[in-house]
């Protein structure tokens, strides 16, 4: 009888999706990975809501009400939650706006930027409520592990996930970690 596969989900909040691209950069090792893991919510499956999972990899910071909803649902469904990349860990590049008043940001983008409908701010109930500040995910939910980098390398993803699959505590060599 085959052993149960590790169930893995991924999602992205406020960020650039670069961490997901780095995960995909494991290239042909992805074929080896799908022999031992089953993907739930991820770009590989196009599943929109996370079911019960062993491992959740989440990139991006928290910048709006929808991010909080997705993050809390993800945490609830993932036994192990991993903050992936600078945006999830510190707020990253999206948090650069934290030193600027949110109203000033809106005015700069929607009232002064060439090519927009000057003076018209978006007002649609489908748009999530933006927060004044972008926050790291640990300020909203408990995080079990952190994979630093912008983005973490494919080798970091590979080592981390294969350690978990093998039942080992994930360890990363110092040379593998990047804090840029």
Helix-strand blueprint:
Layout: E1 6-12, H1 18-24, H2 29-33, E2 37-39, E3 53-59, E4 62-64, H3 65-77, E5 78-84, H4 85-90, H5 102-112, E6 130-135, E7 145-147, H6 154-165
Parallel strand pairs: 1-2, 1-3, 3-5, 5-7
Antiparallel strand pairs: 4-6
Briefly, what is this?
The chain is an alpha/beta fold. The chain is built from six helices and seven strands; from the N terminus they run E-H-H-E-E-E-H-E-H-H-E-E-H.
Q: If you had to describe this structure to a student in words, what would you say it looks like?
A:
This protein is an alpha/beta fold. The chain has one domain: 3-Layer(aba) Sandwich (Rossmann fold), CATH 3.40.50. The longest helix is centred in the middle third of the chain and has 13 residues. It is elongated.
What is the H/E order?
A: EHHEEEHEHHEEH
Task: Please give the alpha-carbon distance between the first and last residues.
Answer: 44 Å
Radius of gyration: 18 Å
Fold-level CATH name: Rossmann fold
Could you report the average pLDDT, rounded to the nearest whole number?
A: 89
How much of the residues is beta strand, in percent? 15-25%
CATH superfamily: NADH:ubiquinone oxidoreductase-like, 20kDa subunit
| Poorly predicted regions | none
Largest sheet: 5 strands, parallel
Structural class: alpha/beta
Q: Which range best describes the helical content: under 10%, 10-25%, 25-40%, 40-55%, 55-70% or over 70%?
A: 25-40%
Report the total helices: 6
- Reading off the top of the CATH hierarchy, the class is best stated as Alpha Beta
**Total number of distinct structural domains:** 1
Which oligomerization state do the chains in this entry correspond to? single chain
Number of strands: 7
């Amino acid at each position: 009888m085959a052993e149960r596969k590790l169930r893995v989900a991924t999602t992205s909040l406020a960020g650039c999706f670069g961490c997901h691209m780095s995960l995909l950069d494991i290239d042909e090792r992805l074929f080896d990975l799908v022999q031992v893991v089953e993907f739930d919510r991820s770009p590989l499956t196009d599943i929109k809501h996370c079911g019960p999972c062993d491992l959740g990899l989440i990139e991006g910071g928290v910048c709006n009400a929808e991010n909080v909803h997705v993050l809390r649902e993800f945490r609830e469904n993932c036994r192990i939650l991993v903050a992936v990349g600078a945006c999830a860990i510190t707020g990253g590049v999206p948090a650069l706006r934290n030193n600027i008043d949110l109203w000033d940001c809106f005015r700069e983008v929607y009232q002064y930027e060439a090519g927009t409908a000057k003076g018209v701010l978006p007002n649609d109930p489908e748009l999530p409520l933006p927060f004044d500040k972008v926050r790291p995910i640990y300020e909203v939910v408990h995080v079990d592990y952190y994979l630093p980098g912008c983005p973490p390398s494919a080798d970091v993803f590979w080592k981390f996930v294969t350690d978990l699959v093998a039942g080992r505590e994930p360890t990363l060599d110092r040379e593998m970690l990047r804090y840029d």
